[in-house]
Design a protein that fits this description.
Distance between the termini: 84 Å
Number of domains: 1
Radius of gyration: 25 Å
Number of helices: 3
Strand order of the largest sheet: 1-2
Strand content: 15-25%
Length: 125
């Protein structure tokens, strides 16, 4: 009987030592998902820029059709939260990304077709 009381007391003591903060775990998971989404989209943008240039960054080949000219930042609202995109600039081709929501709402209000405002990544022109 005494041994059972001791083991129950030890279990209670362990409950005080190990505490799981579910809110903190949820917050950390949200951050991990957001970071993964951001990293994935940025890698896709880089891969698309490589494809458009017909060469990777800093690669010198005869088949290169364009060169990079830096990048610019854009924010994108996702279900995972706001992510920061690093959109490559190219000397000849241009990336056409999402239009800001405000412009989409304005076009809807004016009666224009908002389907033209869907996300397009790739050269324009």
């Amino acid at each position: 009987m005494n041994q059972k009381k001791e083991s129950t007391q030890q279990a209670k003591n362990l409950n005080r030592v190990i505490k799981i903060d579910e809110a903190q775990i949820h917050s950390h998971l949200d951050e991990m998902v957001r970071d993964t989404v951001e990293e994935t989209i940025n890698k896709m943008l880089d891969a698309e820029a490589d494809r458009l240039c017909n060469a990777q960054r800093y690669e010198h080949t005869d088949s290169r059709t364009d060169t990079r000219a830096g990048s610019y930042r854009r924010k994108l609202q996702t279900k995972a939260g706001t992510v920061s995109l690093k959109v490559p600039r190219l000397r000849k081709a241009t990336f056409l990304l999402l239009r800001p929501a405000r412009r989409v709402r304005q076009r809807r209000h004016m009666g224009n077709d908002p389907a033209d405002d869907r996300c397009r990544v790739g050269p324009t022109g």
